[in-house]
Design brief:
Number of helices: 44
Number of strands: 0
Strand content: under 5%
Structural class: mainly alpha
Helix content: over 70%
Largest sheet: none
Oligomer: single chain
Length: 760
């Protein structure tokens, strides 16, 4: 056998290497990546296509075609970030290849999306220079002019486009829309009818005519056009949605459901149709039907992220936490940074009461996806659960900014405005919510409450009459109508509404409470208690009724009867916190502080977040001079709600009177003043803190205010006198200190007041 020499072996290796160089050349690599990218693109595997086209552009940055393909792929992927990618790649394309008309046109479309019509027209002009009759270029230029409100010039460009391509149906729609802008309905209709003469079976034009008839107040003709379009193109999902939207506009909910059911039945393997049906049922509040629709959607397309996310949301809305958690953990197991997974994890934590953890997660989500409206919405929900209405309002505002069509966010924003007393803003947001979802009863109630609060009783009554009609089995509309009648000082009518509300819902405590309060105000305490007794006879096991009865006995100054009623309420439901609170108050008023403390401690044992229980225990310990225990309860309150003014005021007082940190005391007192600027006791506390910090001028104005409003409080006269002394007003100081001692010989600063008077 012949042996190869080292020289011949080297020659063979060199030959092999040289012969294989062509296979690894940049041009060969580029062709391979380009072919793969195009194959992925045609198979709609756009993320894979994107990587391949990026490889081509990296190998040859000046290849205009690769940048163009990249831009098209970004468009297919969609979303704000990908649109930015498309914009950048189209810009590179036209810089490298000024003759790529499609790139110019698509770049112009993106300029229009970004509200830069002048730049859009520049791209159109670049196309029209080489192709003056290019219909798409003329349309783009016309749209740019219309966006700049140059309507006459825009109409001219659309007419040129029609001359260039009479069969291009979208041009007629653009022309009709331009005529609508200048309030020329006749010309708008003529443009659409002209298109229909050219193509009588154009579903696109029929839908546009339907929309036109809606805007001109001809619903029958609109419905006819939509149905005709559906006959021509029965498979088109968009046509079903347009007809459903039309029925929704006029409140024909049965027809809406029928259209979407027909669409889903026609193409049961199209998950989007099941999703639309699920969204409808969600809007109806029919959670079981919504859940079933989303389950069908994920069943026909397990890879649909939209269907998956809708299903998890539906599980959470339906209280099926375990199912939602299982699917959420599956997402996070695949990718711990997945935005949807983190969002649903936050919602799960909200359900479990882990509000701070939920807020932290949601803040991370909106940082990564600042335009994710639903994440802003639930961040607002979390802040509301913590009582932080200002932060909640900010989050809901962001939600409606990024998705103006979220009825629930408008509703939540309306609720925060109402809580802050901004009735006009509450009405504005509630009306926006109702316009998006006419079945949004919560938004209607908020608007009615806002009208009632601002004294517009006519509009409030109209809203609540509509609510009562929409919910004939519920008490809420009648209850609110009773509140309106009471505001009108028509107690007979108010009582009638409240009684009717109780016939619809005998377990409703609110109307019964109103009946009792009216009778108390009329001096008919016995009648009020008798009415509650009557309801107890009908519902003997309702603990809320005994709680109400106990409160009425407290107003009647019969603590013994009140104690019996509250004990009965707790016998029926030992978790009823309001009964514990009221029983504690009975003992406190009767001087039975040990028993009172035990009741409030029992409340906290069941729920350590009850602010009133902490507050009452703080007051009790304060009265017993157990200042450390009182301080602990006030601090616990402020951990739960950092803006709770009564606790902040009392904590500041303990710190300033018992050797605490004066800067911390000042911070608490200032916050309390911000929250309740008209509270004279808070003015006294803040003034006394300023005194202790030697800020006597600041102290004087606050203490003068407090003395003027609380002239019978010796402590406040003492504080004011001490401050007057420091400011050099000896006569004023003497008078104030003497007044303090005349009111009481044993108030907390009495000894110091006597010493000061002796010196004066």
């Amino acid at each position: 056998m012949r042996r190869l020499t080292s020289v011949s072996l080297l020659g063979i290796l060199l030959t092999l290497i040289l012969s294989s160089c062509d296979g690894f050349s940049p041009e060969s690599k580029k062709a391979t990546h380009l072919q793969r990218g195009q194959t992925y693109f045609e198979k709609q595997q756009y993320r894979e296509a994107l990587l391949e086209f990026q490889n081509v552009a990296q190998l040859d940055p000046k290849d205009a075609d690769s940048h163009y393909r990249l831009a098209l792929t970004y468009l297919k992927l969609g979303g704000a970030m990908n649109l930015q990618g498309a914009f950048a790649e189209f810009s590179r394309t036209v810089a490298l290849d000024k003759m790529n008309r499609d790139a110019h046109l698509k770049l112009g479309e993106l300029f229009l999306l970004g509200n830069e019509p002048a730049k859009a027209r520049e791209q159109a002009d670049m196309v029209l220079v080489s192709a003056p009759n290019n219909a798409e270029g003329l349309i783009l230029k016309g749209r740019g002019l219309i966006n700049e409100k140059q309507y006459a010039e825009g109409i001219v460009e659309f007419r040129k486009a029609i001359e260039a391509d009479p069969k291009n149906m979208p041009t007629y729609i653009e022309l009709a829309r331009a005529h609508v802008f200048v309030k020329d309905a006749t010309s708008a209709e003529a443009a659409l009818k002209q298109a229909l003469m050219i193509d009588p079976r154009s579903a696109e034009i029929l839908l546009a005519l339907g929309d036109f008839h809606v805007t001109t107040g001809k619903p029958d003709q609109a419905e006819s056009m939509y149905k005709h379009a559906l006959e021509i193109d029965p498979d088109n999902e968009g046509t079903y949605l347009r007809l459903a939207s039309f029925y929704q506009r006029y409140g024909k909910w049965a027809e809406v459901e029928a259209v979407l059911q027909k669409s889903a039945a026609l193409k049961p393997q199209d998950e989007k149709r099941h999703i639309h049906l699920g969204d409808l049922f969600t809007g109806f509040g029919q959670r079981d039907k919504a859940l079933a629709s989303y389950q069908r959607a994920t069943g026909v397309n397990p890879g649909s992220i939209i269907a998956r996310d809708k299903l998890i949301s539906s599980y959470l809305d339906s209280g099926k936490v375990d199912e939602a958690e299982a699917r959420t953990m599956a997402i996070l197991k695949m990718n711990a940074k997945d935005v949807s997974g983190r969002f649903f994890d936050a919602r799960l934590r909200l359900v479990k009461g882990k509000v701070d953890e939920a807020i932290s997660l949601l803040q991370g989500v909106v940082k990564d996806e600042p335009q994710l409206a639903v994440a802003h919405h639930f961040l607002g929900v979390a802040f509301m659960q913590k009582g932080q209405t200002v932060q909640a309002r900010g989050a809901f505002t962001e939600a409606v900014k990024f998705n103006p069509n979220m009825s629930e966010s408008h509703t939540a924003l309306a609720e925060t405005y109402l809580a802050e007393g901004s009735t006009d803003l509450a009405i504005e947001q509630a009306q926006a919510a109702i316009q998006l979802n006419p079945r949004n009863v919560q938004a209607a109630i908020i608007s009615g409450d806002a009208y009632l609060r601002k004294g517009d009783l006519i509009k409030s009554k109209q809203v609540f009459e509509a609510v009562a009609q929409a919910l004939p089995e519920e008490a809420i509309g009648l209850h609110r109508l009773g509140l309106v009648a009471h505001a009108e000082k028509n107690d007979a009518k108010a009582l009638a509404y409240f009684e009717e509300a109780l016939t619809r819902k005998p377990m409703a405590i609110e109307p019964l409470t109103q009946i009792a309060m009216i009778k108390i105000a009329q001096g008919k305490g016995n009648d009020a208690r008798e009415r509650v007794h009557k309801q107890i006879t009908a519902s003997p096991n309702d603990p809320k009724l005994y709680t109400l009865l106990g409160q009425l006995w407290m107003k009647g100054e019969d603590p013994g009867q009140a104690e019996t009623a509250f004990k009965k309420a707790l016998e029926l439901d030992d978790s009823l916190l309001s009964a514990y609170m009221n029983l504690g108050l009975v003992y406190h008023i009767a001087g039975k502080t040990d028993q009172a403390a035990k009741k409030f401690e029992a409340v906290l044992a069941k729920d350590p977040k009850v602010l009133r229980a902490h507050m009452m225990l703080g007051i009790i310990h304060d009265g017993l001079k157990e200042h450390e225990q009182a301080q602990a309860h006030y601090e616990a309150i402020l951990k739960l709600d950092s803006r709770f003014a009564p606790a902040a005021n009392n904590l500041a007082w303990i710190l300033v009177e018992h050797g605490g940190n004066l800067d911390v005391a000042l911070s608490h007192a200032q916050m309390a003043r911000e929250q309740q600027p008209n509270d004279s006791y808070i003015a006294d506390t803040l003034g006394w803190v300023y005194y202790k910090k030697n800020a006597y001028l600041l102290a004087t104005s606050l203490l003068k205010e407090a003395v003027g409003k609380l002239p019978h409080e010796p402590d406040i006269h003492f504080h004011y006198g001490m401050t007057q002394h420091k400011n050099g007003d000896q006569a004023g100081a003497k008078k104030s200190l003497q007044t303090a001692l005349e009111l009481s010989q044993s108030f907390s600063g009495s000894e110091e007041a006597r010493k000061m008077l002796a010196g004066l």
